[in-house]
Write a structure and sequence with these properties.
Elements lengths: L2 H27 L4 H16 L12 H11 L3 E2 L2 E2 L3 H22 L6 H18 L7 H6 L3 H30 L3 H33 L3 H34 L1 H4 L7 H15 L5 H11 L22 H16 L5 H9 L9 H18 L4 H18 L7 H12 L13
Antiparallel strand pairs: 1-2
Length: 425
């Protein structure tokens, strides 16, 4: 069994055991302060029910996450000590989250098991760090109720966010095989967006309920709801922007300049190779956009390239098409970095930035496998091995050796999405 499968299985098993233990303990001993538990459970359930996150969005239900986090950090309710403990916290968050998620699961749009496991373990971590200390009075006795207590709460939030990011990156690493460092950086960057809003709202909710009771929850949820709406509008703009770029990239296919799906394949495989080489965040976005538009210069040619395979052309002709493509890209309004990659994709690799090296090598690979002999799974694998060998022979000038070897590793794992795994010879 692969290590990645073991990692995912271990995380899911730990979350399942924690959830079952929490539910069993709560059912056996009863619910402490049922009114407060019901208020937080309703907030978590409504937040999960209102989730409308796009596929791949890191936190599709921020209100549910903030409500569960606030319950984990609740030390008092309207001035009275809250003694619900770690297991009841996990039980309420888990049961309410599942209740709100159930309609989405029925429609096939719910979160995956990895997201649910992450949520259970993260809330359990926060509750374990806070609940045993607050009711005993240890925190107040040493720090008081003023700024030091708030700072300690902020430190706990930071540790909880870090725990969630580590788990998310670990699960992604197990599923994809990409390097752990760039994945963790992506998760930490995501915390600066909706993640920071979730942490801040969870802390404010806990402090507000401590002073005013559960009736403070609806009022304190409003700022996060507004933040959520703004974040989704921003994501919608980004989605439209990417769809526009993808439509422009398809112009070469519609015009018959490139084979169907070539730009999408190059973009997906380039992104996978970029992750393997340590790129993340904005760097990956720029790389993806450049890979989608790398062949757009062919629209300016009088005579089309046979099969759209620019990798088989003389170096000077490749360079001319790349410069034509860069000129077109600069007129589309995309970031200048995208145009630079398109312009420099045909240069010797020693003069190229890393994203241009990736686009050139992956484009050459797709051109070689598309024009190579062989059909079916065996033929495709043979064409892929032949293409990798030709790329290795071109490492003196055209293709950086590290990029070629990273491409081989990505292909050995199955490529970008559902490709036939290629075992390099």
């Amino acid at each position: 069994m692969r290590p990645g499968v073991l990692t995912v299985g271990a995380v899911r098993t730990a979350a399942l055991l924690l959830g079952l233990a929490a539910l069993g303990s709560t059912l056996r001993h009863g619910i402490d302060r049922p009114g407060t538990a019901l208020a937080f459970g309703a907030l978590v359930a409504l937040g999960a029910l209102a989730r409308r996150g796009a596929p791949g969005e890191r936190e599709p239900a921020p209100l549910a996450a903030a409500g569960a986090l606030a319950y984990a950090l609740l030390g008092e309710s309207a001035g009275s000590p809250a003694t619900h403990g770690v297991l009841q916290t996990v039980a309420v968050a888990t049961a309410a989250g599942l209740a709100g998620t159930a309609p989405h699961l029925v429609r096939g749009r719910g979160p995956g098991p990895d997201h649910l496991a992450r949520r259970v373990l993260t809330i359990g971590f926060a509750a374990l760090c806070f609940q045993p200390l607050r009711p005993s009075g240890a925190v107040v006795r040493h720090l008081g109720e003023g700024p030091p207590y708030v700072l300690s709460l902020g430190l706990l939030l930071l540790l909880t966010a870090l725990c969630d990011a580590v788990l998310a990156a670990l699960l992604l690493r197990a599923r994809t095989g990409f390097p752990y460092g760039p994945l963790l950086r992506d998760e930490l960057r995501a915390l600066l967006g909706i993640g920071s809003a979730v942490c801040a709202t969870g802390a404010v909710m806990a402090l507000g309920v401590a002073a005013a009771g559960p009736w403070a929850l609806p009022v304190l949820a409003v700022p996060l709801l507004l933040t959520q709406v703004s974040h989704r509008r921003y994501e919608a703009v980004r989605t439209v922007n990417r769809q526009t770029i993808a439509s422009l990239a398809r112009a070469t296919e519609v015009a018959g300049c490139t084979p169907p799906g070539h730009a999408r394949r190059v973009a997906a495989l380039s992104t996978a190779v970029g992750r393997e080489l340590g790129l993340s965040g904005t760097e990956l976005t720029v790389l993806e956009h450049a890979a989608l538009m790398h062949d757009i210069g062919q629209l300016s040619l009088v005579d089309p390239v046979e099969g759209g395979a620019t990798a088989l052309l003389p170096a000077e002709e490749q360079r001319r098409i790349a410069l034509l493509g860069g000129a077109v890209v600069r007129r589309t309004g995309v970031p200048p970095a995208v145009a630079v990659i398109v312009e420099r994709q045909a240069e010797p690799y020693r003069e190229q930035p890393l994203p241009a090296r990736i686009v050139r090598t992956v484009n050459a690979y797709d051109d070689l496998t598309s024009t190579g002999p062989g059909t079916g799974a065996g033929g495709a694998a043979g064409a892929a091995l032949d293409a990798l060998e030709r790329l290795r022979l071109g490492t003196a000038r055209d293709h950086h050796p590290d990029v070629v070897e990273c491409l081989a590793r990505v292909l050995a794992r199955g490529g970008a999405s559902g490709m036939t795994p290629v075992v390099p010879g």
